[in-house]
C-alpha cells in the first residue's frame, strides 16, 4: 500500500542561517506539510551554536560546510539562502549533485556567473531550479496581475514601485547590502522584476538614477546610498520608476502602481500591520509592518509550497531562473548611473551602449 | 532516542464534513505541523462519498457514525464541527471516552445542556476541552485587546460589533441558521463574545432587539430574520450594540469598534480582500472577502495550532468552555426580544427577569 | 436700469451670538454674496460686548432684544440661532412680522409648540420658513441620496448613524444640551432626520434606548447621559440605529451607513481633517476635524445660499418645516425609553402607545 | 462715517474667459466678499458672446481687448488667466498702468521674459503682483508644510509628486498644453514648485526625464508626450521625482509625498470626490474628482481672498513672483531632457551646464 500523503515529505536542506535562513526553516517546518527539513548549514560560529541548540530535537543535522551538507543522505532539495557572493557557486554545485534548488535573488553579483548558472540549470531539466523572487508569490501582486490580464486597466505602460525598509540603526544590513551589489541590485531588483512581471517581455532603452545618503555616511566609501530613485525607459513606450530606501521611520513600505490606458492598479499604497485602527486625541492611526517578513510571510510560504509541489509532481517551476538575468542587467545599469551621474542607454536588443559594461 | 519533533503528531478526528468541517481538515493537514488527521465522520451520504474519494490517499478513515469514529485506535482529540443540536452530546461522549475536544460555538441550543457540558469538562481537567470562538484567535482582535490592555483608549464602555454575511441566494444557510437558534444565537454570538472579550466580566442588565426580513421570506415561519439589530446594556454603564445580516451584497463585512474614555479601537471597519486597489473610470475600488473563511482562515489555523499545542504540552486551553455560557444566555435573550418585541431585563446576578426564561 | 446682481442683497439678521450664531454671521458675510447682515441680537452681556466691537465697522446693528431687532428697518429675513426654548416663539413672532425665517433644529422642546409653528408658517406661504437640518445640505449626504435614488444599493432598509462629538472638558456644552431635550432630542435628532431622509416617509413602530455617563456625572441629575445608543424600528421592516456621544477623544466623528437590498452606502466612515497623512515611527496617522463646524462648514454655506436664493427667486424652501416634527417625536420617544428603560411602541399612524406621551 | 466693510470692494477684472477664467469670475462673485468684478475680456468670439449674455445683469463690462479693459475706470486689479504666451506682456502692461496683478503660472514660456516681469514688478513695490501657484493655497499642502515645520518628519530629502489629469478625449487640452511649454513646463510646474515649497531654497544639480504617448499621437509632432516621468537631483542630497499624465481613466489624481529623516508626509495619496463610499457586489468603491477644479476650488477661493486682502490691507503678497523663475528653469530642463534623452546638469549656482540652454 502506498504511504499516506500525510507521510510523503520532500527532504530539504537550508543553506545559510541568517535572518532569512532561519525563517525559511520555520516556514518549511510549520507551513509546508509536504516538506521535512533534514539539514542546515552556516559558516558563522554564532549561527551554528544557535542552530545546534534550536534544532536538536527536530531531526535537523547542522553542518558548518555547505559541501558536506549537500552530501547528506536522502537529501532532495536545497534552499540557498546564503550571501549573494556564493549563490551561484552553491547553486551550481547542488545541481551537479542532482539536487533541486531554490536560490534566493539575485543569482549573482556577476552577470557572466549568473548566465552560467542558468546554462547549467537548463542542461538539467529534470531538476527543479527556481529563482526566489518572493513577490511573485504574493496574493496581492498575483491578483493585480490577474486583473490586468482581465483587462481591468487596458494596456499597462507605467510602473511605479518602491521598496522602502524600516531604518536599521545598526547599519549592519546597509553595509551588507552595499556588498551585494548596492541599492539597485540588492533592493530595487524586486521592483525591476515587478516591472517585468507586469509589462511582460520588455527591453530597456535607457536608465538613470540618483541617490542620497540620509543616515549612513559609511555608505559613501562603499559606493552606495541609502535612498535612491531611478527610471527605466523600455523600448515600446513603457516606463518604470523606482524609489528604494533603507531609512524609513514607519516600517516596511513596499508598494506598486501599474498605470494602463484604461485604469490603474495599486498594491499596498498605504501599508498597515493588520486590521486595527486607533482613534485617539492625536488623531486616527494604524501600525505598519516592521519589515519584509511581516509583509511577505505568506508569500514565502506559498513559494515554498509551490517549489515542493513541483518537485513532488514533476511540474515546471513557477519562476524560471532566467527571469533573474534581465533584472540583474537593469539593476547594474541603474547602479552605474547612480555612481557616474550618466544616463545609460541600450539598443533594441538590450545591449548596453554606455558606461563600463557597454558592449560586454 | 526521542523521535524528531517533526515526527510528533497529535492524532485528530474531525466530526462533520460540511463547509467548515472540510476546511478544518485542510487546515490541520496544511498548517498544523504537529497534527495528523486520522479520521472524519458525517451522516450525509454525499459528504461521505466526497470524503472517501478525497481522503483516500491521505490515511484518513471515513466513518458514517460519530460513535464509531471516536473508537478509532490511537485517537487523541476530536474537532466537533457538526450541527449545533449535537455539539453538546458529541462533546460529552468524547470527554467520557478520554478525548480532548475542540467544540465549535455555540455549545448548545439549550442552556441546561450547555451547562452540563461545562460541568463534565470541569470534572476531567486532564482533558483539553475548548470552545471554538475563532475570533479570539484573530491577530487583529488580539492586537486590539493588547492595545486596550496598554491603555490606548482608557476604560472601554461601548462596543459596536457586526457580523454581516454575503447574501446566500440559495437560502440554505439561512434556514440552517434558523434551526441553530436564530440570528442572535447562531450569528451574533461572536459579537456578544467580543463584547465580553473587551469588557471583561460583565453582567447583562437589559437587552432589546429588532429585525427584518430583506431577502428570505421563508424565515418568517422559522421565527427568524435575515437582518437584526440589538442592544445589550451591561451593569456598570457599559453598552454593546450589534448588527447581524445574512444579506450583504458586497461580501463578508465583520467589524468591531470599542469606545473608551480616551479613544476608540476599530477592527476592520472597511473590509478588503487583499492589498489591491483599482482605479477605473467608475472610481476607485477594492474587492471584499466573500466569506467568513477568507477573513478568518489565519485565525482558524492559530486556533488549531494552539489547541494542538496545549495537548502536546499539557497547558491550559486558551479559551475556557465556560465562556460560551454567558454569550449563549445573552443571545437567547436578544432572540426572545426580537420575537416578542419586549425588552428583557436581568438582575445584578445576571438572572433574567422578563420573558419565558425568567427565573429559570 | 436694474441694479447689478452684484449689488442685490437680502437683508438678514442673526438671532443669538453663541458659537453657532457668530459662525452664521461669518458665513453670511463671506460666503453668501446675495446677503447682507444688518442686525444681530443676544441677551448675553459678554456676547453683546464682543459683537459691538467685532461688528462696528461692518454696518451691523447689535441689539439686546430680539423683539427690537426684528423691527429693524428693511429687514427681510431672520436666522434663529438662539437656544431651543425660544426657537418656536421667535420664529412665530418673525413670521407674524412678515419676515422669512431659517430656524435651527429642533423647532421646540415641546411637541405642541412645534406643531403650532408649522401651522402658522403654512398660513403664510409667501414667507420662506425653513428648518435648519444642516446635514441635508452636505454634499456627501446628498451624493449618497442621489446614488440611492439611482438604485446603487437597491431598497434601503437599515440606517446606522452616529453623532459623536469631541469631549468638552468644561462640561458647558453638555449641560446646555441636557436643557435642550437631552441626548436624543438635541444631538441624535440629526441622525433621526437622516433615517427619514434615506427611508422616505416612514412611521415609527417601536424604539428603545440606553445610555451611560462616561465623563460628566453632573448629567445624572439633569436626566441625561453623555453616550447613548438607540434603535428605531419603522413600520414596513425598516430599522435605524444610532450612537450619540459627547465624549470622543479624537474629534468630531459623524458617520452614516445605509444598507439596501443590493448594497450599502457609507458616509464618512473614517473621519479626517484634510488630505494629509503622516507616517512616523509610531505608525501612520491623520488628524480628525475637531468639531461639527469643521465637518459641515460647507453645508452651512450651502444652506445659507439656498435659503437666500429661495427668498430672492421666490421658490420653495429646500427643507419643509414639517420635517422637524417627526424627528422630534422619535427623539422624545428615544429619550423617554432611555430614562424609563421601557421600549416605546407606536401604532401604524405613528401614535405613541406607551409611556407618558401615549395617546397625546 | 466710513462705509461698512460689507460695502468695501476691490474692483477686479479677469483677463481670459477660458475654462479657468470663467471659474475665477465665479469665485470672485461668490466667495470673495471684498471683491467686485467690473470687467472681463477675451479675444474668442464664442467666449465673448457667452460672457455678454451671462454677465449682463451683473454689472460686468465685457471687452474684446485686454488693453481697453485695463483702461476701465476705477479698476484696481487684474487676474491674468489668458494663455501662457501673453501672461508676461499682459502683466507688464497692467503694472505699468498701476494695477495690482494676479498672474497664473507659468509667468512665461521664455525665461528672459519671465525675468523681465519680475524686475518690473520689483520696481513697483506699491503694487501687489503675485504668482498663481494655487496649490500653495490648498489647506492640505499648507498643513503638510506646517507639520514639516513642526518637525513631524525630521529633515525632508525626497519629494514625490504627481499631477495626473483625467483623459481628455477631445485632445484639445493636450494640444493646448503642448504649446504652453509641454508636459514638464505646463503641468509638472506645480510639482516642481511643491518640491521647492517643501525643500526651501534648493539649487538643481541634474535632471532627467522620459515620456510616452499613450493616447494622443498628435503630440509627437508637437514635441510633447501625454505621460512623463522625471527626476530632479538638488545640490545637498535632496531628490524630487515626478509623474505627470494627461490620460488617467479615473479622474484627477494629484498627490505628493515628502520623505524626511524621521517620517513621511502624504497629501491625497488616494483621491476621492467626497465622503461617500459604496459597497456593492463588485466591491467597495468611491468616486474621484474629475478635474483640477474639483480638487482645488477651495484653494482658488483662498488665493483670491488672500490676494484681495493684501491689496486692501497693503500687506505683502503671500507668493512672491520670483518663485516662478526657478520652477520654470527646472521645467525647461526636464522638457529638454525628455526631448534629447540626455541628463542635464547644473553647477552649484544653478547655471545649466548641458543642452541648448547651457551657459545662457
Automatic annotation (TrEMBL), chains A, B, C, D:
Keyword list, A-Z: Oxidoreductase
Domain Gfo/Idh/MocA-like oxidoreductase N-terminal per the UniProt entry, residue ranges: 10-130
Domain of life: Eukaryota
Domain named GFO/IDH/MocA-like oxidoreductase: residues: 141-265
Gene3D superfamilies: Dihydrodipicolinate Reductase, domain 2 (3.30.360.10), NAD(P)-binding Rossmann-like Domain (3.40.50.720)
InterPro entries: Gfo/Idh/MocA-like_OxRdtase_N (IPR000683), GFO_IDH_MocA-like_dom (IPR055170), NAD(P)-bd_dom_sf (IPR036291)
Gene Ontology biological-process annotations: NADPH regeneration
Gene Ontology molecular function: nucleotide binding; oxidoreductase activity
Pfam (any one): GFO_IDH_MocA_C3
Single GO cellular component term: cytoplasm
Keyword Oxidoreductase: yes
Family stated for the protein in its record: Belongs to the Gfo/Idh/MocA family.
Name used for this protein in its record: NAD(P)-binding protein
Originating organism: Hyaloscypha hepaticicola
Amino acid at each position: 500500500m502506498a504511504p499516506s500523503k500525510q507521510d510523503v515529505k520532500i527532504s530539504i536542506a537550508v543553506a545559510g542561517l541568517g535572518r532569512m535562513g532561519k525563517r525559511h526553516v520555520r516556514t518549511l517546518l510549520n507551513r509546508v506539510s509536504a516538506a521535512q527539513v533534514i539539514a542546515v548549514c552556516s559558516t558563522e560560529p554564532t549561527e551554528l551554536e544557535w542552530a545546534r541548540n534550536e534544532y536538536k530535537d527536530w531531526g535537523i543535522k547542522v553542518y558548518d560546510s555547505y559541501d558536506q551538507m549537500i552530501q547528506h543522505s536522502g537529501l532532495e532539495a536545497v534552499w540557498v539562502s546564503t550571501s549573494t557572493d556564493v549563490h551561484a557557486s552553491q547553486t551550481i554545485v547542488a545541481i551537479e549533485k542532482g539536487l533541486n534548488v531554490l536560490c534566493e535573488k539575485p543569482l549573482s553579483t556577476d552577470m557572466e556567473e549568473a548566465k552560467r548558472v542558468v546554462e547549467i540549470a537548463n542542461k538539467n531539466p529534470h531538476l527543479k531550479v527556481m529563482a526566489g523572487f518572493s513577490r511573485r508569490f504574493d496574493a496581492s501582486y498575483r491578483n493585480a496581475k490577474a486583473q490586468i490580464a482581465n483587462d481591468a486597466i487596458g494596456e499597462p505602460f507605467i510602473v511605479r514601485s518602491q521598496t522602502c525598509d524600516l531604518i536599521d540603526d545598526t547599519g549592519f544590513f546597509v553595509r551588507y547590502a552595499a556588498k551585494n551589489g548596492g541599492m539597485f541590485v540588492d533592493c530595487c531588483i524586486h521592483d525591476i522584476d515587478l516591472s517585468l512581471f507586469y509589462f511582460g517581455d520588455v527591453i530597456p532603452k535607457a536608465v538613470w538614477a540618483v541617490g542620497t545618503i540620509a543616515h549612513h555616511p559609511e555608505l559613501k566609501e562603499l559606493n552606495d546610498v541609502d535612498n535612491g530613485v531611478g527610471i527605466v525607459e523600455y523600448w515600446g513606450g513603457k516606463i518604470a520608476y523606482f524609489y528604494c530606501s533603507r531609512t524609513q521611520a514607519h516600517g516596511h513600505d513596499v508598494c506598486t502602481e501599474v498605470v494602463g490606458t484604461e485604469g490603474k492598479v495599486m498594491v499596498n499604497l498605504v501599508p498597515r500591520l493588520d486590521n486595527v485602527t486607533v482613534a485617539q486625541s492625536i488623531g486616527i492611526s494604524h501600525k505598519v509592518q516592521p519589515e519584509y517578513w511581516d509583509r511577505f510571510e505568506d508569500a514565502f510560504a506559498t513559494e515554498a509550497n509551490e517549489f515542493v509541489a513541483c518537485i513532488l509532481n514533476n511540474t515546471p517551476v513557477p519562476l524560471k531562473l532566467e527571469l533573474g538575468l534581465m533584472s540583474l542587467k537593469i539593476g547594474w545599469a541603474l547602479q552605474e548611473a547612480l555612481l557616474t551621474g550618466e544616463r545609460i542607454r541600450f539598443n533594441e536588443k538590450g545591449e548596453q551602449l554606455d558606461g563600463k559594461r557597454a558592449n560586454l
